[in-house]
Write a structure and sequence with these properties.
2 copies of one chain form a homodimer. Chain A is of the alpha/beta class. Chain A folds into 2 domains: 70 residues, Winged helix-like DNA-binding domain superfamily/Winged helix DNA-binding domain (Arc Repressor Mutant, subunit A); 122 residues, Rossmann fold, CATH 3.40.50. In chain A, 44% of the residues lie in helices and 18% in strands. In chain A, the strands form 2 sheets. In chain A, strands 5-6-4-3-7-8-9 form a 7-stranded mixed sheet. In chain A, strands 1-2 form a two-stranded antiparallel sheet. The longest helix of chain A is centred in the middle third of the chain and has 16 residues.
Chain lengths: 211, 211
Amino acid sequence: MRKRKVPDVVINRLPLYLRVLAEIDPEQTPIISSYELGERTGITPGQIRKDLSFFGVFGKQGVGYEITTLRAELCRILNLDRVVNVGLVGVGNLGEAFLRYGAGRQKEVLNREGLVIKAAFDQDEQKIGRHIAGVEIFPVWQMPELIARLKLTIMILTVPAGVAQEVFDTCVAGGVKAFLNFAPVKLKIPAGIRVHHADFTLQLESLAYYS
Amino acid sequence: MRKRKVPDVVINRLPLYLRVLAEIDPEQTPIISSYELGERTGITPGQIRKDLSFFGVFGKQGVGYEITTLRAELCRILNLDRVVNVGLVGVGNLGEAFLRYGAGRQKEVLNREGLVIKAAFDQDEQKIGRHIAGVEIFPVWQMPELIARLKLTIMILTVPAGVAQEVFDTCVAGGVKAFLNFAPVKLKIPAGIRVHHADFTLQLESLAYYS
């Protein structure tokens, strides 16, 4: 119930708070004010207090938030206090880059639970059975079975635009609830499914303003 | 002067408005209300009206915005009514994926001016002189000269984290004002330079909430 009520834009900001907090040594700086957190994230202190209050997290008036507690709370809210199993479909250049990138990031966060890429899928028989950065590539027809067996709850789509909807539908039917989609296509998304579009074009177009 | 006053978050939303407008045939639907634009973008009508008012763009009370005019205005504001020359540094898996992705997108927007990737750079001699999706790969030492000659105003950084700052500094010295950075590193950014971080980790972490 609670999950329905929190706006997606609020959820999207939580990882940023978490990242900033991770850069601070709580032994040296045990407490952070919403003002300082605002300075470091570029989000206004009022917005930060409002975002955190959605989850019943409040700082001490005139003091701030205890960093260790706030980090633990954010991890718990984002389900990052346990392992979240991620799959990837489409091991072309982008898929391969992502697997290597993911491996690099996982090393950085080894000291806590979190996101782990457990399996990759491709239709090219040449690629089946290969490992990239420790992740095995399986045939796409095995997807429904492996989604269930490996408990994949997030899927990264790095497939060509032409097959994206079909792959997406298969994953949804298999029980995946959250997607990071790199295919430049507008997916038909059923209710209850969350899709983030990794859209470089929008980012580049807004950069053109500053060019 | 004007550019300084518009918040970056507003600029970041303009390409989304432009995309939604591009999907509508102005012959059939010449006018759109901020309410409809809100429905299609997920941004509140009030926010949309406020965003556009920064640029002196106002809809007709009780009617809305003329789509053709609004598209032209947004293109002009974002500098997309002319060619914006883009460079890319680091032709690994991700860089190569980006070049191919960019080429696909450019075909879609052939009927207007906009972002064009003009040159790629790498330090691997094996790659120099190759073309990917029509874009030539040059040695990194030629970067300062080519930034000036090809008027590259946006640079995409798909380099390893270890060299990102050095490459960034070279581009800034060469006159590049806007960056899309894929390297998982916190860059030291001088005033007046705009950097967007394409950070998959943050996107994945917020997806974990829905997993």
